Structures are given as C-alpha cells and as structure tokens.
C-alpha cells in the first residue's frame, strides 16, 4: 500500500480561525497592509490586534501574562517556565514576576516604553493610517497564536432549496446534508437592530417551517406566477392611497374630495384593489392627517376580500365605498 500526502499552502484570509493557548479563539475580521497597522514607539508594526472584550468574557487572564512575559523574554533573550497555581507561593506572584521582568527589559534595552510606571504592562501605540497616537494605552506583547483547521474555504456553503426535517419541517443541519444556515436568537436580534423586516419574515417563514408559504413560493417559481406579498406591502400602498390622492385607470391623479369620482368607479377601483389583504385598525388614530376612517375587511373561504372605507369630506354620497377583490 502506498500512502501519499499532499501539502497545500494556504495563506491566511478573512474568516479563518485562530486561537491562543488559553482558549482565546477568534475569527479574522480584516487584513490590512503592513503600513496601515498600528505601530510601536520604535516603529515596529504589530502583527495582530485582538478584541479586549475577549478577556473579560472568558476570564482567561493567562493570555495577558503570556503576552507581557513573552515581550520581556524576547528582549532579554530568556525563557520562562511558570508553574500552575503559583499564587499559593505568594499573593499576585505572576503579576509581580511580569512587572519585574518588564522593568528589567526596559532598563537593559533602554526602551522606556517597555515599562511605563503610569500604566505598567501597557504602552502608547500609533495609528498606522494617520500617525496619531491612540487615546488610551494598549497592552502589547508576544504570544503563541495557532491557526486552526477551521478555514473559510472549507466552511463556505450555500443552499436554495433542499431536504427538510420530518419532525420540525425546518431545513436539516449540516453542510454534508445540504442543510440550511442556523439563525439563532442573537442573529435575529442583530437583524431586528437593522430593521430588515422583510428579510426576517423570509427567514422565519418561507425558508423555515411555514408549509403553506413555502408551497406558494415553489408554485410561483415553477409557473412564473406572482408570489405572496407581505402585509407591509399593502400597508405601503395604503399610505400612498390615503394621502388624499387615488390613481385612476388612465394614470390620472384624482382627489378623493373633489366630488367627481363615483362611489365605485374607474377612479377608485384600481386603488382599492391594491389594498386587498390589508388589515388596518388604528391608522387614522396614529395619523390624524389621513382623510379616511379605518378600513373594515372581511375574508371568506374563497379568499375574497371585501374592503369598505368610510370617508370624510365631500364625495357625492358622503360615505360608503365598497369593492370585492380576490388576493393571491
């Protein structure tokens, strides 16, 4: 039997996963040119910038000691071996060791920025794009960073339609099964923060476990028909039609209060048809400038929608407009 190993060189890119030796893992979010990276007071650009919130969330302060002691060891050309639970020998033993070694490295190399008494362990660094110093001092150091096997080239996956779970009727999970992307609570909160209501509706209904809507989308795709529209679509049309203007069949704008439109005629019928499927209860309460009272809508088994609008103003009959249409 002949076993062949293939070596492939992959440069690190956005989306790849890296980790230190203290559980401080993360995803590369951006790669900048070397001249744009922050640089130290001696002009040395840094290699990686980590989010400081990772320390407080995971509470792994070992990475801070490793980074600071690694800087001191690199300048002093020394290696350190720290036993676990060294606090049993002396209170804050690790912190005292790190600060003493940084002070010694600053004194021997004559670099005062290595150990600054005002903020020991931190240093002022400069923005590589502007050359201005950052507002707050930053912890700098050297530590081991490992590239993990989780790489973006092997993680990328897409799906239009595919298998669904028999129990939940949601898309199955996993790239090997042509599964869907999991959208959890925090992902939904993030989308809500951006106000993308239609994307949320699509994710949580059409592309999930809404059987009827899923079938309607499939039929519309195959037969080239019009897909189901959300209530927000009709709400938008309602707001347009309620701004005292309606659109006649010939494309003319006709005022609802002009007195020339019949109760149900070519001037009002197209506008009322576009409102089919909308349930509005308090639009006139929230918007006193609207010239129409709330619409009353009834839906029967044939999905026929009856739209009744009670109007103010000066239409001929001073009141009732009614038409019946069918929604998709």
From TrEMBL:
Pfam families linked: RNA_pol_Rpb2_6 (PF00562), RNA_pol_Rpb2_7 (PF04560)
Keywords: DNA-directed RNA polymerase, Nucleotidyltransferase, Transcription, Transferase
One GO cellular component term noted in the UniProt record for this chain: DNA-directed RNA polymerase complex
InterPro entries, per database record: DNA-dir_RNA_pol_su2 (IPR015712), DNA-dir_RNAP_su2_dom (IPR007120), DNA-dir_RNAP_su2_hyb_sf (IPR037033), RNA_pol_bsu_CS (IPR007121), RNA_pol_Rpb2_7 (IPR007641)
Keyword Nucleotidyltransferase in record: yes
An example molecular function term from Gene Ontology annotations: DNA binding
EC numbers: 2.7.7.6
Catalytic class of the enzyme: transferase
Highest taxon above the source species: Eukaryota
UniProt domain DNA-directed RNA polymerase subunit 2 hybrid-binding: residue ranges: 1-177
BP GO annotations: DNA-templated transcription
Domain RNA polymerase Rpb2: 179-220
Gene3D superfamilies: DNA-directed RNA polymerase, subunit 2, domain 6 (2.40.270.10), RNA polymerase alpha subunit dimerisation domain (3.90.1800.10)
Cleavable signal peptide: none
PANTHER family: DNA-DIRECTED RNA POLYMERASE I SUBUNIT 2
Family note: Belongs to the RNA polymerase beta chain family.
The name this protein goes by in its record: DNA-directed RNA polymerase
Organism: Sorghum bicolor
Taxonomic classification: Eukaryota, Viridiplantae, Streptophyta, Embryophyta, Tracheophyta
């Amino acid at each position: 039997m002949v076993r062949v190993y293939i070596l492939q060189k992959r440069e690190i890119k956005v989306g790849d996963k890296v980790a230190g030796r203290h559980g401080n893992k993360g995803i590369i979010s951006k790669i900048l040119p070397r001249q744009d990276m922050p640089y130290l007071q001696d002009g040395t650009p840094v290699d990686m910038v980590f989010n400081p919130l990772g320390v407080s969330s995971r509470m792994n302060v070992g990475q801070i000691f490793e980074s600071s002691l690694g800087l001191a060891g690199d300048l002093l050309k020394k290696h350190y071996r720290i036993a676990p639970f060294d606090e049993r020998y002396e209170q804050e033993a690790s912190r005292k060791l790190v600060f003493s070694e940084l002070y010694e490295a600053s004194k021997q190399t004559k670099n005062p920025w290595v150990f600054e008494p005002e903020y020991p362990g931190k240093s002022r660094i400069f923005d590589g794009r502007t050359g201005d110093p950052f507002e707050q001092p930053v912890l700098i150091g050297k530590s081991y960073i490992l590239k993990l096997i989780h790489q973006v080239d092997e993680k990328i996956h897409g799906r239009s339609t595919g298998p669904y779970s028999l129990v939940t009727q949601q898309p199955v999970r996993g790239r090997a099964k042509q599964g869907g992307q999991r959208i959890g609570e925090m992902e939904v909160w993030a989308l809500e923060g951006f106000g993308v209501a239609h994307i949320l509706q699509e994710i949580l209904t059409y592309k999930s476990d809404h059987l009827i809507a899923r079938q309607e989308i499939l039929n519309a795709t195959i037969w080239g028909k019009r897909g189901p529209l959300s209530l927000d679509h009709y709400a938008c049309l309602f707001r347009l039609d309620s701004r005292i203007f309606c659109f006649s069949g010939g494309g003319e704008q006709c005022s609802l209060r002009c007195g020339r439109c019949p109760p149900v005629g070519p001037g009002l019928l197209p506008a009322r048809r576009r409102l089919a499927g909308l349930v509005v209860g308090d639009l006139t309460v929230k918007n006193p400038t609207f010239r129409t009272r709330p619409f009353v809508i009834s839906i029967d088994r044939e999905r026929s929608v009856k739209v009744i609008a009670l109007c103010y103003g000066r239409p001929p009959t001073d009141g009732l407009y009614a038409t019946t249409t069918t929604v998709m």
